[in-house]
Write a structure and sequence with these properties.
Elements: H1 2-18, H2 22-29, H3 33-42, H4 45-48, E1 54-59, H5 61-65, H6 69-77, H7 79-87, E2 90-92, E3 103-106, E4 112-116, E5 122-123, E6 126-135, E7 138-143
Parallel strand pairs: 1-7
Antiparallel strand pairs: 1-2, 3-4, 4-5, 5-6, 6-7
Helix pairs in contact: 3-7
Length: 150
């Protein structure tokens, strides 16, 4: 009985240590420093640490590097526009790669992303380069370009 209790405690601790929300998961990945900075500037960190579930199409640091520096600096200073851009990358619910279908999908921002599945998956003009990075409140799919709402 004692061994069972110890084992149960160890398993619980392992799951608790493993459980990370979308923000913690992205930060731990190491390729989303600019996204983390932008989320903080927009005041969205707590939202994406919330219960969700969320599906986040997360641009990498390399994706943000494609945005001209002056444009990125201006975006980071304009909280309203930054919030609109970042929430355009988020879809309500947890959509795993196997469940992705081509068509329009409504974002948290309110506009629709266009998802295509011919020749790999794209979201608007961004290519999905990695999928199904699980978090305890949703999933992250990595994209190679920052997408801007129309």
């Amino acid at each position: 009985m004692k061994k069972l209790l110890v084992l149960s405690a160890l398993v619980s601790a392992a799951f608790a240590a493993q459980a990370k929300d979308i923000v913690d998961t992205a930060v731990a990945n190491g390729n989303f420093k600019t996204l983390a900075t932008a989320l903080q500037a927009a005041g969205l960190v707590e939202t994406l640490k919330g219960p969700g579930p969320f599906t986040v199409f997360a641009p990498t640091d390399a994706a943000f590097a494609k945005v001209p520096k002056a444009d990125l600096d201006a975006l980071l200073k304009d909280k309203a526009k930054l919030t609109a851009v970042l929430t355009y990358h988020v879809v309500p619910g947890k959509v795993m790669a196997k469940d992705v279908k081509p068509g329009k999908v409504k974002t948290v921002q309110g506009s629709e992303l266009t998802v295509a599945t011919a020749n790999g998956v794209t979201v608007d003009n961004a290519k999905v380069t990695a999928t199904d990075i699980a978090a305890d409140n949703g999933v992250i799919h990595v994209i190679d370009t920052v997408v801007i709402p129309k």
